[in-house]
Design goal:
- By secondary structure, the chain is α+β, with helices and mostly antiparallel strands.
- The protein has one domain: Arc Repressor Mutant, subunit A (Orthogonal Bundle).
- The chain is 55% helix and 16% strand.
- It contains four helices and three strands.
- Helix 1 crosses helix 4.
- It holds the Pfam family PadR.
- It comes from Jutongia huaianensis.
- This is PadR family transcriptional regulator.
- InterPro entries: Metal_resp_DNA-bind_regulator, Tscrpt_reg_PadR_N, WH-like_DNA-bd_sf, WH_DNA-bd_sf.
Length: 110
């Protein structure tokens, strides 16, 4: 992807990925799901998860899996509120950008 992903967009993507699982999801799965839409490293995502946890957008719990503890993340009510704000902002932003990028000289809609 040639466009940079800012921290707000990355937060929105992570919250959307975590929201998909009602019982929570673990860090590696989040990384894989995010990587399916944007190119990002694990070293970038884990600080995002910690920040979202600190901001009360995600809650965390550990669960044993195959003899090891796996850290799971769940979206909180505050996280849902924030995700809905991101969705509204994304809709407005992407609509305006699409109008500019997809506008041709013969197109008079703007």
């Amino acid at each position: 992807m040639v466009f940079n992903t800012g921290s707000a967009l990355l937060d929105a993507i992570v919250l959307a990925v975590v929201e998909r699982s009602s019982e929570g999801t673990y860090g590696y799965k989040i990384t894989q799901d995010v990587r399916s839409v944007i190119d990002v490293s694990e070293s970038t995502l884990y600080p995002v998860l910690r920040r979202l946890q600190k901001d009360d957008c995600l809650s965390v719990y550990d669960k044993e899996c195959g003899g090891r503890n796996r850290r799971y993340y769940q979206i909180t009510e505050q996280g849902r509120v924030q995700l809905n704000l991101y969705r509204q902002e994304w809709h407005n932003y992407s609509h305006k950008i699409s109008q500019l990028l997809l506008h041709t000289s013969s197109d008079t809609r703007l």
